[in-house]
Structures are given as C-alpha cells and as structure tokens.
Known about the structure:
By secondary structure, the protein is α/β, with parallel strands linked by helices. It has 2 domains: 13-256 and 458-483, 3-Layer(aba) Sandwich (Aldehyde Dehydrogenase, Chain A, domain 1), CATH 3.40.605.10; 261-442, Aldehyde Dehydrogenase, Chain A, domain 2, CATH 3.40.309. It has helices spanning 47-61, 64-67, 70-86, 88-99, 103-127, 160-173, 188-200, 214-221, 235-245, 270-282, 299-315, 334-349, 383-386, 402-410, 425-432, 467-474, and strands at 13-15, 18-20, 27-31, 38-43, 132-135, 139-147, 150-154, 177-181, 207-209, 228-232, 251-255, 260-264, 292-298, 353-356, 373-376, 393-399, 417-421, 439-442, 461-462, 475-483. It has a 7-stranded mixed β-sheet with strand order 14-15-16-13-12-17-18, sandwiched between helices. The radius of gyration is 23 Å and the shape is globular. The mean pLDDT is 97. It comes from Virgibacillus sediminis.
Amino acid sequence: MQTTKTEVMNCSHYINGQYVKPENAKTFENVNPATEEILGYVAEGGKEEVDQAVSVARKALKSEWGNMPLRERSAIVRKIGDLILERKDELAELESLDTGKPLWLSTGVDIDRAAYNFHFFADYMTTLGTESYQQDDKAIHYAIRRPTGVVGLINPWNLPLFLMTWKLAPALAAGNTVVMKPSEVTPMTATVLAQICTDAGVPDGVVNMVHGFGETGAALSTHEDVDAIAFTGETVTGTAIMKAAAPTLKKLSFELGGKNPNVIFADADMDDVIDTTLRSSFINQGEVCLCGSRIYVERSAYDEFLERFAAKARELKVGDPFDKDTKVGALVSKEHYEKVLSYLDIAKEEGGTFLTGGKAAEGFDKGYFVEPTIITGLGSESRCVREEIFGPVVTVVPFDTEEEVLEQVNDTHYGLSASLWTSDIKRATRVSAQIEAGIVWINTWFLRDLRTPFGGMKRSGIGREGGAHSFDFYSELTNITVKL
Ligand SMILES: NC(=O)c1ccc[n+]([C@@H]2O[C@H](COP(=O)([O-])OP(=O)(O)OC[C@H]3O[C@@H](n4cnc5c(N)ncnc54)[C@H](O)[C@@H]3O)[C@@H](O)[C@H]2O)c1
Ligand SMILES: O=C/C=C/C=C(\O)C(=O)O
C-alpha cells in the first residue's frame, strides 16, 4: 500500500495573502483514510480567526479588486486555472492522500475540472450582459451588476478542490472577496489553492481561508459582516446554516444531499446501461452527490441487468488509491466508514439480499475499504432506499409501469438528479419532465456543460449554479431608470 509520498503537510489558515501560524494555535490531526497514517496537523479556527478573515475581506472589497477593470480581473481568474494545471500532479496526489480516491480520478476529474472552473467562469463573466428596457418615450431602464460582497464558501470532503473552485471561480470573476472553509476531513488542496490565488495575482485579502469544524462554519454563517454563504454539504447542515444566517438575512446558495434514482426501461441499450450504472454507483466510492443509489429496472430486463451488473461490480478492484488498477479506493474517514457499514447492518435487518459486497473489503489491516454492494429485496419504506448512504452501496428494485416507477422515484424529500434510460424519445421526454429533480440525464450520467443550471429541488438545495445562475448569486443587480 502506498504510504505518504508527500512529506507531512500541515494546513494553516490563509489571511490577507499569507499563511497564519498563530502561536499556541489549536490543531487537529489529518488522517490518510487508506493507511490511517497522519498526513499532518490542521489549524482549528474559531471566532477570532473568522473575524480577522472577514474584516480583511471587507477591506479588500473596497480596494483595487473591487475597482479592477473586468479584463484584468478575468485574466487573473484564468491564470489561477493555468497554475492549477501546472501543479496538477502535486494537487492530484494531495487529493488522493486526503480523500482515499484513486489517483487516476483525482488527476483526470478533480484537478482538471478545478482548473476548468476558473477558465470557464473567467471567460463567461466577460460576455455577461444585463437587462435593459425602453419604456415608450418615458424612460430607459437598465440594470448594473456589482459583487454580492464578502462571501463565505463552506465545502464538503467528497470533491474538495472541484467543489471549492466551483464556488471560488465565479465569486472571484464577479469581484467578490471570500472566506473559504474547507471540510475538516480534507483540508490539503484548498490550502495550496489559497497560495495559487496569490501567485496568480489576486490581491491580498481577497481570498482568505479558515480551517476548522462545524463551529468555524457557524462563525461564518452568523457573522454580521458576511453577505452570503455558498454551501455544499448535508441537508441537515443546510438547515443549521439557514437558521444561523436568518438574523442577518444572508443570501444563501445550497447544494445538498441526494438519493438519486436511475430508471432503466427494457428498451435501453443494455451495454451502455451496465457501464454507466457501474460508474454512477461506485465511482469515487459512491461519494458523489449525483451518484444514482436507487436503481429501478423494468421487470422484463431485471434479471439480465442484475446478472450483468453484479458480474461487473465483482470485478472492480478495491484498494490502494495509488495503484493504477484500483477502481474503488478508501472511504474518506473512519466516521463515514462506520456510517456506511451501519447501513449494511440495517439492510440485513430489513431483509435485503446482498448480490455483491455487504461488508468491509477483506485483506486490509488498515484503511476504510468497503466492497461495492448491490442490495435487492428492499421496499420503498426501507431506510437504505430512503436515506442518503453516500458510499458504494445501491439498491435495485423492479417496476412494471411508468406510473408506478414515477411514484417511487418521487417518493422522497430529495430532488437532486436522476438518470433515465430508454430508446423511446417520447417516453424519455415525458418521464423526465415528471421526475422531481434539478437535473435529469437521459441515456447518460454526469455529462456536464458548465453553462447549464445545476442544483437540486426539494431538500436537495436552494438556487442553481452554473453559467449565468452562478452570477445571479455572486452579484447583485441595481436597476436604474432614466426618465426621458
Ligand atoms: N448537491 C451537491 O452538489 C453536493 C455536492 C457534494 C456533496 N454534497 C453532500 O455533502 C454531504 C457530504 O459532505 P459532508 O459530510 O462534508 O457534509 P457536511 O454537511 O457534514 O459538511 C460540509 C461542510 O459544512 C461544515 N459544517 C458542519 N456543520 C456546520 C454548521 N453548523 N454550520 C456551518 N458549517 C458547518 C463542515 O465543517 C464542512 O466544511 C452529502 O450529503 C452530499 O450529498 C452535495
Ligand atoms: O458531489 C457532487 C458533485 C457536484 C458536481 C458539480 O457541482 C458540478 O458538476 O458542477
């Protein structure tokens, strides 16, 4: 098993363009989930550090950053993407050490996309207009756009750099200043990112970062001088942030949990269904908010699907994130590993059948490895069908009619994404329009175009990100009326 390649990396806060190493600062351990070795120590920020970061960010908003010509700001945002690509190998290694995900995935998905987030939003911002109306011979109305202000970016551990940059890039392109709060479980790539921003020419005080647990995030959500919070994470945390932010009426953008369905009709291309469902179930150890964890298959294709899907799932190599043949790495932390295993116990109690997996992967003395698990025989009341497990665990259920499957698909508080499989275009458009989710993929999964609206309905989120939607959040419009 690959141990720590990188020397121990400690993670400090980043305030006003430099790492902050306060004396006698509290720290906590950062653990490699594949080896249980200590990767380094992370500064634990409290109210004091958050106050400091917010006050610096507030000042920076009024300085050169806020007044910089758009072309110059956009060039700096682009440059951050370039520097991420220059440091791709280092960042990918850190991401895999921190999360336990395979290195090929960090390299080919996480870091690539992090760089593209900056390139995309830098370009998009330069083409973005606003509305204007001529009202007969009475008036002209036009809107101007300005930064939302100081924005808190609070992020989870599953796609650490990918998701932080999904927020940071549009926030910077629109001229905001930020305080980032990475997940306490995966602090390393954000720590490097802060320095990269300075190296790219972002003025001091524009990008700040405070590490820590939920209390650190709460210090941001309650802060008088933070204008908005962009949060990705669990639905219950979203509730806590909404409550905390209410007294200061912050603008909120929430990307929350999901329990996404895959709906497979018998007329679908089964080779494609099997390959894509394998990815949507087990990529990143099932720790992607968009993973399809409830699989519904039309009864006439059910047996064939199960046989072929299970055979391929059994072939997936679980293990060392740094082995190029590994398909499923380690779960992100001991706490999360225990949570996922507890759902496997629940599945047993509920009378489910494990077609594959159902247990921790064998042959590892250390690390948080779980076998790809396919469960059948659970009804719609099962906790494994209703609750987000966020691991390499899926349930498969047969259905007979469109109406019946739609009822099951929508019988949830979540509404993030769905993947629908059929060769009948009429059925595809009819059914997709009835699925209560912010994103529906037809005959594919996780095919992204960053211009499209991205986000969840119901308890899977508030608002949309992507393209102009991101800029609706990261800027405020003032409508100006000129009397003619
Ligand atoms: N919809 C999406 O786009 C999307 C994307 C990725 C992950 N997710 C969701 O994220 C979850 C997994 O991530 P997680 O376990 O890190 O989520 P989490 O909600 O536990 O933590 C996310 C972040 O919030 C912070 N936090 C915790 N309590 C807080 C509080 N009271 N106030 C402010 N901040 C607080 C954490 O320290 C962390 O930085 C899953 O539910 C997954 O579905 C959603
Ligand atoms: O785990 C969540 C995945 C989120 C993906 C995106 O935010 C995206 O593709 O823009």
